[in-house]
């Protein structure tokens, strides 16, 4: 049996709901049918992906690895369908449209809200992708008008020739997330050495993220254990104290997770808005900057960091 997207979607549903019964309801299939499908998938891969317990299903170590790789594929297929439908609707409507691409960011919601207010009557579509390279390729091919992406420090993005760039922030520090009861959570600023004994979670599908983290570890003379997985899995492991993970400084406060800056900001990214030649980015960039200010102001530690570095983004407008 060859794995298909529907099989990966089923695995993600089982992991998300923790139950074959609830996953079957989510997917709109019968539980016996889903159970049979899971057995066929496990047979094809040669090992169990979930341990069946009285309280439900929990991913095995292999299951976590498979699901971590499956989520971006499932999300990518969903984005493809959504984008295709949006393109078809826009073509039928014939009005102005704005096709936005973005890597994961806390500012997306505020940015879209502001753009819809600023550009009434414009059909605005959004594609979120873990790969900045894929988004830049879509802009270059004319499938997107603009893309808001991050470039990991030390891992330059190959921006296609001719695309226009505007830098939102030359250097955004990456903070670190950890469980609330982690010993380092009591510190206002954390040294990398404080986390040398922890398992670090990183998403290898994000362009440059693993290479950037490996470069920083090497420079610090550290070699911590590294786990590979998506952001959703990372968050669940961080809360349980199973791992720590880099995170955006605009990440909002959570009762079950601590987010702290790293001393001397060894991890950083550059934030870029890239557009097709001739695209008027005045409104798009202006509302992006305003949304970023809002997100930064809500994150106290990051707002303080921006003030210390005298960034104009620290001032709300």
DSSP strand content: 15-25%
> Strand arrangement, largest sheet?
4-3-5-12-6
Instruction: Tell me the helix content.
Output: 40-55%
Order of helices and strands: HHHEEHEHEHEEEEHEHEEEHH
Low-confidence segments: none
Overall pLDDT score: 90
According to DSSP, the number of beta strands is 12
The assigned structural class equals alpha/beta
Distance N to C terminus: 56 Å
Task: Report on the architecture of this protein.
With 317 residues, this protein is of the alpha/beta class. The chain is 43% helix and 20% strand. The protein has 10 helices and 12 strands. The strands form 4 sheets. Strands 4-3-5-12-6 form a 5-stranded mixed β-sheet, with helices on both faces. Strands 10-7-11 form a 3-stranded antiparallel β-sheet. β3 (97-102), α5 (108-118) and β4 form a beta-alpha-beta unit. The longest helix is centred in the first third of the chain and has 33 residues, at 61-93. The radius of gyration is 21 Å and the shape is globular. The termini are far apart.
Write the layout of secondary structure elements.
Layout: H1 5-17, H2 20-27, H3 31-45, E1 50-53, E2 56-59, H4 61-93, E3 97-102, H5 108-118, E4 123-128, H6 132-140, E5 146-152, E6 164-173, E7 175-179, E8 200-202, H7 209-220, E9 226-228, H8 231-239, E10 245-247, E11 257-260, E12 268-275, H9 282-298, H10 300-308
Parallel strand pairs: 3-4, 3-5, 8-9
Antiparallel strand pairs: 1-2, 5-12, 6-12, 7-10, 7-11
Helix pairs in contact: 1-2, 1-4, 2-3, 5-9
């Amino acid at each position: 049996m060859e794995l298909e997207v529907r099989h990966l979607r089923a695995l993600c549903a089982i992991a998300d709901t923790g139950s074959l019964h609830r996953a079957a309801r989510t997917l709109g299939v019968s539980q016996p049918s889903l159970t049979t499908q899971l057995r066929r998938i496990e047979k094809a891969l040669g090992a169990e992906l979930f341990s069946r317990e009285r309280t439900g299903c929990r991913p095995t170590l292999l299951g976590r690895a498979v699901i971590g790789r499956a989520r971006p594929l499932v999300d990518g297929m969903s984005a493809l369908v959504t984008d295709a439908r949006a393109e078809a609707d826009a073509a039928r409507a014939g009005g102005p449209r704005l096709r936005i691409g973005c890597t994961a960011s806390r500012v997306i919601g505020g940015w879209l809200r502001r753009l819809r207010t600023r550009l009434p009557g414009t059909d605005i579509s959004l594609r979120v992708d873990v790969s900045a390279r894929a988004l830049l390729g879509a802009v270059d091919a004319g499938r997107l008008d603009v893309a808001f992406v991050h470039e990991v420090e030390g891992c330059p993005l190959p921006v296609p020739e001719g695309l226009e760039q505007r830098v939102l922030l030359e250097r955004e520090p990456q903070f670190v997330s950890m469980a609330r009861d982690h010993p380092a959570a009591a510190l206002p600023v954390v040294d990398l050495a404080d986390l040398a004994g922890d398992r670090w979670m990183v998403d290898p599908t994000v362009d440059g993220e693993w290479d950037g983290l490996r470069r920083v570890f090497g420079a610090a003379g550290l070699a911590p254990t590294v786990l590979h997985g998506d952001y959703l899995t990372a968050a669940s492991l961080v809360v349980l104290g199973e791992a720590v993970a880099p995170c955006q400084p605009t990440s909002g406060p959570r009762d079950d997770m601590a987010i702290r800056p790293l001393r001397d900001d060894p991890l950083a990214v550059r934030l870029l808005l890239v557009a097709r030649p001739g695209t008027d980015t005045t409104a798009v960039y202006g509302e992006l900057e305003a949304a970023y200010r809002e997100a930064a102001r809500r994150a106290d530690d990051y707002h303080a960091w921006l003030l210390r570095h005298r960034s104009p983004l620290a001032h709300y407008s």
